[in-house]
Amino acid sequence: MKFDVLRWNQKNKTINIIDQTLLPIEKKIIELKTTNDVFDAIYKLKVRGAPLIGIAAAFGAVIGYYETLNKLNIDKNISDISKSEIEYILNELKENYFKKIEYLKSSRPTAYNMFFLLNQMMQYFEDMIYRFKSSLNENSCANVNEFLNFLELIGINLQKKANYFQTEDAKLCEKIGDFGLTLIKDGYTILTHCNAGSLATSAWGTALAPIYKAFEKGLKIKVYADETRPLLQGARLTAYELSEKGIETYLICDNMAGYVMQLKKIDMVIVGADRICKNGDFANKIGTYSVAVLAKYHNIPFYVAAPYTTFDLNLKDGSQIPIEQRPKEEIIYGFGKQIAPTNINIFNPAFDVTPNELVTGYITDRGILKPPFNF
């Protein structure tokens, strides 16, 4: 299942994305030309979902490299350049390029995939620089054109790296779907929260991947999708893509989840994740914790679907996860209509943390992980 939500434009070295803030009313493609554009698109949720944010940021790092490269002052009229001059230029390039990447990292603090992929882009860049420096003799000069070609090659290789991440993400999500399919029986009804589908990844999705696999296998399944306040990703995005696929879907308000469980309408819950800690605590869209508590009370299996790029093994538990706070306007002015007093105090966390004891298992690209969790 693929929506082509993000494409790299090789000719212009830009990113084309579907502006997800406009779905399902309008399917509009916008072009991201600068790192500022990429930052804005991530922060304003024009591109969203932990895996897709990571892919967008990786391509944003490619744009950032070319922005940095174009500002370098290299005299192209000379034939040779000394090792010391090369090292000075490369140090300047690294410093300014890494500032671009740190800027991208600051767009949203919770989803780990972006940090994981950007750190790999930084390491890849450093490895290329190190190998080139090592090839230089202490007292010799290098040809300027050869040096310029090397700088261009860095950009080409960074593009290849970002392309690899995007291709790998689609494969990882399909594997999640294959493993998750083994948990779904014919006639199951599944509840999900927020959007962890194809719109949030390169293809298939995470939480929705097992559902798509079950549907394609011919299993009779139903899905209950929470609307997911305050930005309604479940209503605008999950309901949209499931209905596009032809899967029987029921959209419910967030505060109805407990009642449909009480009515024994739900056989299992599958949600996505934005960051998973070493002990199995995880962060996901606000409201996920409530769903997990309800599922535990009603003895309903609660599964989390995520690729390895979402696991942050540097964090021992959920108390260490940085939780993004969103602008109060998202609640006061819901989609352009004022629904609350202007001067009211607002608490608007984008994510909450669900403790590991509420998780039945993690559906990953490497298999289904069951408790006790110690990744």
Average pLDDT metric:
96
The number of helices is 10
Q: Considering DSSP H and I runs of 4 or more, what fraction of the residues is helical? A: 40-55%
Structure classification: alpha/beta
| Element-level helix/strand string | EEEHHEHHEHEHEHEHEEEHEHEEEEE
Strand order of the largest sheet: 8-7-6-9-12-16-17
The span between the termini is: 29 Å
Number of domains: 2
Report the radius of gyration as a whole number of Å: 23 Å
Report the CATH architecture of the largest domain.
Answer: 3-Layer(aba) Sandwich
Largest sheet: 7 strands, mixed
**CATH topological fold name of the largest domain:** Rossmann fold
Amount of beta strand: 15-25%
Low-confidence blocks of residues: none
Q: What gross morphology would you assign?
A: elongated
DSSP summary, beta strand count: 17
> So, the CATH homologous superfamily of the largest domain?
Translation initiation factor eif-2b, domain 2
CATH class division of the largest domain: Alpha Beta
Question: How would you describe this protein?
Answer:
Helix content is 41%, strand content 17%. The protein has helices at residues 35-43, 50-69, 83-105, 112-134, 144-181, 209-217, 233-245, 257-262, 288-297, 329-332, and strands spanning 6-9, 14-18, 29-32, 80-82, 141-143, 189-192, 222-226, 248-252, 268-271, 275-276, 282-285, 302-305, 333-334, 337-338, 351-354, 361-364, 367-369. The strands form 5 sheets. It has a 7-stranded mixed sheet, with helices on both faces. Strand 1 (6-9) and strand 2 form a beta hairpin. Helix 2 (50-69) packs parallel to helix 4. It starts with 5 loop residues before the first strand and ends in a 6-residue tail after the last strand.
